[in-house]
Write a structure and sequence with these properties.
The complex is a heterodimer of chains A (about 325) and B (about 180). By secondary structure, chain A is mostly beta strands. Chain A is about 10% helix and about 25% strand. Chain A contains five helices and 13 strands. A six-stranded antiparallel barrel of chain A has the order 1-2-11-10-7-12. Chain A has a four-stranded antiparallel sheet with strand order 5-4-3-6. A two-stranded antiparallel sheet of chain A has the order 8-9. Chain A is globular, with a radius of gyration of 24 Å. The relative contact order of chain A is 0.21. In chain B, strands 5-4-3-2-6 form a five-stranded antiparallel sheet. By secondary structure, chain B is an alpha+beta fold. Chain B starts with a helix and ends with a helix. Chains A and B meet through strand 1, strand 2 and strand 13 of A and strand 1 and helix 2 of B.
């Protein structure tokens, strides 16, 4: 199963492919490509990384994401004295578990694990997977699409310093389950009148179709189970990075309950936005304690702009 | 009185802060504020503790400790003077508001309280976030007596003698004069 989400997103963002990505033409006439490829022959690319070394970030690079745990919400006052609600996401022993085999460098992926789980609670196939990679059994695994220059060796720990305060992140998690819900809550229908003779139809959907075709279309919005689905919130600014507690504070709210595993990645839909603030040293492929420049324990994002509490002259 | 050397150093520090693309919150805590008896500290508790320690420049957190004696903490019924600035860039223009504290909400870093006063025959209530950087000073002008509730919302309908203008004005004046002396 090959997902091209990373490639499609970079394409939509108008990013040019670099020279090392050789496009495969469907209509190539070399003899090797004319031979039909069996599945195991097609999936033969693994991102190679010799050592853990700092690289240089380019706008076409895609760093790995991270799995964090939602710890709760609090508030902070930014440099202008404006209160900002924040969600605290803690990185819990996040490690690179494996470099995934895919068909092409443009689909490079890396598997990242978070937390720790007891051996007795793991299936044997999973235990074998962790043993073969030499990583302790992780509670949550997820694959992130990357560019080959962002690959990390297996077992590398990713810390909160991977993120830069002021950058934008996308956050994905299953939303809170709401159970079986009616059409007003689930789809925002208006319902019926509260009084004036309305009989038993205060919260009903009303009509479900027309005389022709005389049936209900598939996908018609009706009552059903609401919530519990993966939701991605885009472009949340990272307000603070705390390297001692290993957590990042993102502005606003994040789907799911406290303690849940949240997937955090650098924002990809950036039309009209900046991923990283100006003049920042992007830790690429991640923050490496021996090699990356030392950071203070806590860094808070600079909002910039003009003071919002000073009224304009208009 | 700051020496020219100290002023120069502060200027240099400020310039450095401005050049960096991030802000380092002051004072810095190199180690998280974890109590020795906490074997597996709760991240949110530690964060709240650090945030309050940072915002607690003038020791105002002592006013909101629930277990302190009534004379040492802020109580419902106290007459309080709050000095606020309207924005960070205009730090000189401060506003004073004096009123009776009718409610206190102890919520960690979001601790707040409501002050009620009658200004030009109009009842005015203002809610202040205790740890906001725009709140410069919180001072108990006079301790309340005879208030037996935590929330004094009944004062909106039955103020009694609580908002007698003369008394509150006198207290505000005495507070302002003590501040000048300091």
């Amino acid at each position: 199963m090959i997902s091209s989400s990373g490639f499609v997103h970079r394409l939509l963002a108008g990013v040019r492919r670099t020279s090392y990505l050789q496009p495969r033409s469907m209509f190539s006439t070399t003899s090797s490509s004319l031979k039909a490829k069996l599945p195991h022959e097609k999936i033969r690319y693994v991102p190679t990384v010799k050592e853990l070394k700092l690289g240089s970030y380019t706008p076409e690079s895609q760093r790995t994401g991270v799995i964090a745990r939602k710890k709760g919400m609090t508030g902070m006052w930014n440099e202008w004295g404006v209160r900002v609600p924040v969600t605290v996401l803690q990185l819990d022993r996040v490690k690179v578990v494996s470099l995934v085999k895919t068909s092409h460098p443009s689909y490079a992926r890396m598997q990242v694990g978070c937390g720790v789980r007891k051996d007795k609670n793991m299936t044997k196939p999973l235990l074998g997977h962790f043993e073969s990679q030499g990583v302790e059994p992780k509670a949550k695994l997820f694959e992130f699409p990357i560019t080959p220059d962002a690959a990390l060796p297996v077992g590398t720990e990713i810390t909160a310093a991977h993120f830069v305060s002021g950058q934008l992140v996308d956050v994905t998690a299953p939303s809170l389950g709401k159970g079986f819900q009616g059409v007003m809550k689930r789809w925002g229908f208006a319902g019926g009148r509260a009084s004036h003779g309305n009989s038993l139809a205060h919260r009903t959907p009303g009509s479900t179709g027309n005389i022709n075709p005389g049936r209900v279309y598939p996908g018609k919005k009706m009552p059903g189970r609401m919530g519990g689905k993966n939701v991605t919130v885009l472009r949340l600014p990272v307000m603070k990075v705390d390297t001692a507690l290993n957590c990042i504070w993102v502005k606003g709210s994040v789907p799911g309950y406290d303690g849940q595993f949240i997937k955090v990645r650098d924002s990809i839909k950036l039309s009209g936005h900046r991923l990283f603030p100006d003049g920042v040293n992007v830790p690429f492929p991640t923050y490496i304690p021996g090699q990356s420049p030392l950071l203070p324990r806590e860094t808070v994002a600079k909002v910039g702009g003009r003071d919002p509490l000073v009224p304009t002259s208009d | 009185m700051q020496t020219s050397c100290a002023r120069y150093q502060e200027q240099q520090q400020q310039q450095q802060q401005q050049q960096q693309p991030y802000i380092v919150p002051q004072p810095q805590f190199a180690q998280p504020l974890v109590k020795p008896e906490e074997k597996r500290p709760n991240v949110m508790k530690v964060i709240e503790r650090e945030a309050i320690a940072r915002a607690d420049i003038d020791g105002r957190s002592k006013m909101f400790v629930r277990r302190a004696a009534p004379r040492d903490r802020l109580c419902a019924g106290d007459v309080v003077l709050v000095e606020t600035q309207s924005s960070i860039s205009e730090s000189a223009g401060t506003t004073n508001f004096t009123g009776v504290c009718i409610a206190i909400y102890r919520r960690g870093i979001d601790t707040s309280f409501i002050l009620r006063n009658v200004v030009h025959k109009i009842g005015v209530e203002l809610r202040f976030m205790a740890y906001s950087p725009l709140v410069k000073r919180i001072e108990v002008v006079q301790k309340g007596e005879g208030f037996r509730r935590a929330k004094l919302f009944y004062l909106r309908e039955n103020p009694g003698k609580t908002f007698q203008l003369k008394a509150l004005r006198k207290m505000a004046q005495s507070a302002a004069s003590t501040k000048n002396v300091k």
